[in-house]
Automatic annotation (TrEMBL), chain A:
It is a multi-pass membrane protein. Residues 20-248, 538-628 form the MacB-like periplasmic core domain. One of its GO terms (cellular component) is plasma membrane. It comes from the Bacteria. Residues 299-411, 681-790 form the ABC3 transporter permease C-terminal domain. It comes from Ulvibacterium marinum. The chain crosses the membrane at residues 21-43, 297-317, 338-367, 387-416, 437-457, 674-702, 730-749, 764-784. Keywords: Cell membrane, Membrane, Transmembrane, Transmembrane helix. InterPro entries: ABC3_permease_C, MacB_PCD, Macrolide_Exporter_MacB. The keyword ATP-binding does not apply. Its main location: membrane. This is FtsX-like permease family protein.
From TrEMBL, chain B:
The lineage of its organism: Bacteria, Pseudomonadati, Bacteroidota, Flavobacteriia, Flavobacteriales. Keywords: ATP-binding, Nucleotide-binding, Translocase, Transport. The keyword Nucleotide-binding applies. It comes from Ulvibacterium marinum. CDD domains: ABC_MJ0796_LolCDE_FtsE. It comes from the Bacteria. InterPro entries: AAA+_ATPase, ABC_transporter-like_ATP-bd, ABC_transporter-like_CS, MacB-like_ATP-bd, P-loop_NTPase. This is ABC transporter ATP-binding protein. The keyword Transport applies. GO terms for molecular function: ATP binding; ATP hydrolysis activity; transmembrane transporter activity. Residues 3-220 form the ABC transporter domain. GO terms for cellular component: membrane protein complex. Pfam families: ABC_tran (PF00005).
Amino acid sequence: MLRNYFKIAWRNLLKNKSSSFINIMGLTIGISTCMVILIFVRYESTFDAHHSNAEKTYRIVQRYSLPEETLYWNTTAYPLAEALRNDFPEIDVVTQISGPVSRVFQVEDNFGNVKRFEESQVLFVDAQYPKTFDVHWLAGDLNSALSGINSVVLTAELAKKFFGLEKENYNSILGRTIFLQSKDPFTVTGVVASPPGNSDHQYTMLIPYEFFKINNEYFSSNWSGNYQGTTFVVLRSAKIKEALEKKIAGWKKKYLNPEDDKRIAYALQPLKEIHNETLYGNSPGGYIMPANILNTALIVALFILLIAIINFVNLLTAQSNSRSKEVGIRKVMGGGRFNLIVQFIFENSLIIIGILALSVFIVRILLNFLNTNLSVIDLQLELGWSHVGILLFIGGLTLALAAVYPALVVSAFKPIQALRNSIRFSGTNRFNLRKSLVTFQFAVVQLFVIAAIVLAMQMNHFRETDLGFSSDAVVITETPEFEKLEVYRERLLGNSGINKVAFGSGPPMAVNGIQLGTNYRLPEQPEEEVMMAEMKIADIHYLDFYDMELVAGRNFLGNKEAFDEFIVNETLLKSYGWNAEEAIGKKIQINEGQATIVGVVKDFNNNSLQNEISPCILLNWTYYQSNAFIKISDANHLSLGVIKNIWEQTFNNSIYDYQFLEDSIEKEYAVENLVFTGFGIFSILAISIGCLGLFGLMSFMISKKAKEIGIRKVLGATLFENLSLFTKEYIGLVALAFLVAAPLVYYFMNQWLEGFTYRIELSFWMFLSGGFVTLIIAILTCSFQSIKAALANPIYALKEE
Amino acid sequence: MLLQLRNIFKWVNSGGQRLFLLKDINLNVEEGEFISVMGPSGSGKSTLLNVIGMLDNFDEGEYEFLHESVHALKEKHRANLYKEYIGFVFQSYHLLDELTVKENLEMPLLYKKFKGTERKAMVADMLDRFNIVGKKDLFPTQLSGGQQQLVGVARALIANPKLILADEPTGNLNSAQSEEIMALFKQLNSEGVTIIQVTHSEKNAAYGSRVINLLDGRMIK
Ligand SMILES: Nc1ncnc2c1ncn2[C@@H]1O[C@H](COP(=O)(O)OP(=O)(O)OP(=O)(O)O)[C@@H](O)[C@H]1O
Ligand SMILES: [Mg+2]
């Protein structure tokens, strides 16, 4: 019996080659896309879930309450970890992390060659780290590897790179020495596997926190600063979390000064929530994938799968019309409805299972493509056994909807009518169902298209908005030694391709997550009334370099070891209600000291455009001028080579790196870019699936109506009249779909845009053009088939019968 | 007695009016009869045949088939009844284009739960009996009309039905082909198979033992 079913299924597939192809293509695209999105969502929502203690691990975060705002920090004061360890026996493990940081190392390999490397993922961790997070040891003793001071643990990859290991005999490098900045010696005490991609703790090298502590005595013992340290705890049980938070609230006054004790509230954030929670953001080195984006992605995946399934069902039930004769014959020959249901379910399932297999193959290719080509985030997506669940879910849903439903429809045909070929779809429920399915499909397509248009406009808005400073052709390099700044500047300006050079702590807009923060108040104000401001160190060329405009006062006269001048932005003035002229000459107290306002700069976007401009203080300090800003004039970037040479001559102890300011700014919109790219791709996919479906439906309709067209033509109907016979109906459906889609997109896009301070206004034309594009595509798809039919010689069509 | 129709009425409602397709049909068929149903187009011949074949319902009257009251039977029982005792032959053959001759013959057996070896034997037997062994792996479209109808008859016969219902079996065939099929019917009938055929041709009707005339859904003498 099954052999018989299989044969007839196979022969039918071959008989309707083109429609089978369309059908299989559509569903394959849908299933593959859905799978890729689900795998991505799973990947992004299981960050650090693989650690054996994941359920009981928490990050200590702090809320910092100021009079006019509350700040959420994911970093804590360095001494916190040790204090918790000493005072709370109910906490199993407390670990302190600092970094990741970038450092230069010197290594002598097996052949006696001394090489230098820059490593950007150096993490300082204490001996508790491997008890908190799973680390896969390949060599060395996990209990003692990190307990020394000058020990170092390398990942296998780095071990190979450093020592030129051929084989995986990692034990052979234990005890070898590498040098930090060519002075501090470190002994290799362990080799570990690289952390998996879906972990926010990426490192290539682990150095004992003790080393950091000894070398940064001030930070590591200071309770009132907030530096780049992160504290994780493993609790005896997740149940005691709340009780512990309460206990900590009463305990912290033991260490914090009364001011901080009032402002700071510690909280325990579950490890598994970190990656998807925007409030606290990620620890240094990690990125955030907000939960609402993942939810949207899930909905998108489901919609794409649904429209693909709808296509499949539509085409299958349409084709089943041509199978009605078979149903009739089989019933007359004694086949019961049950037999026929089994047959058609079997047949459809066979096709769907084939499609699933094909999709798995395509998904592997797509994942590879994403891993290598998606530059905004570093993905390591892999198809593994853990995805069987996803496959079963998609497969099950598809089988239930696309295999069972058409089988039920087809098997219900009455034998006599089926044989007479008089099963009609018009006027019956089934036809209305098909219409509503097509409408739904086009509603989804339009949803995607309009969303993509809005997203494109917003991305464009980010790029086009006047930031209040000029960012083009600016190259940024580090400046490792402050003493050599003037030498560096002079050497740079000696080249014709380089126009301007300035130094400072960072560019006007905070990029790469680096922003110096401080508190400010008037000298006579009490300390509890401080407010938060961003501080920037700038030299006398900074304002001119970035075309920033002074609205009052003057520029700095020069940088000093003890700064004495401030230039503030207009936003800061608002906190005191001053106008620009009034502000000049006023004294302000910040954490780092006191100085006089000598200038007011016109507001510029010191935060990326999702956020508002915040109070900002520029100061004339010699410290922290850690970046050089270099304006190049040549378009072909010849100067880049020149800069590299000069840099290496000047700071011959470090490794050169540079970036374009515009690239760094673009990176601030990584998540938005990802969403936009995603929607762009998905709308194209949705359109393709929708068109495939429409194409298939049309070719079917036309084969049914070939005779009608023939007769109409013989009776004198024009091409246009014949065309409108088919297209009219679908234009109506697309229009109806628009009415469904437009309000939904309006709602969702409004919500999304609300997250940005600088946003576009939704306007009517975005919606109309989205609808119009879909309509045109639908008409073209319909016409392609019907023109063929309408142009055909009527004789052939009429002879058919 | 093979079957008996008593006062059978069948109608459809059209525009608030009852349109009668069959009116007061009374018919007794004995085993071994060969009956020809005749009448002008639209007189209800096919409808009658479908009612006898239990493919179509009727609205009034009684129908007994081998002492079972068909009108009182559940759908499933009725299906079992015709599955076991009735074979159909159609004017346009109604072979499955995607199946070979052999597979077409085997198809009804699949629904009647015969074992694989039994099926093979029965199919081989039929191919032999109808002299179409050489054509067993061809598809219907590769056969002439007469050959196709031969397969159609073979398919109707394969499960040894007591009754064969044939709706204009030679309607699409030329006269030589028609004669071949009629001769075949005659022979089957002589072997004990009851046959009811619809036909427009006096010549074909002459092969039968009795003629029933229909006009506007009513039997006339
Ligand atoms: N489902 C139906 N609804 C309405 N009228 C029907 C239906 N089925 C059959 N008829 C009508 O019943 C009448 C008898 O139809 P039937 O097919 O039995 O005629 P026939 O004698 O077989 O004609 P022909 O020799 O042309 O095959 C016809 O007038 C037909 O239009
Ligand atoms: Mg008829």
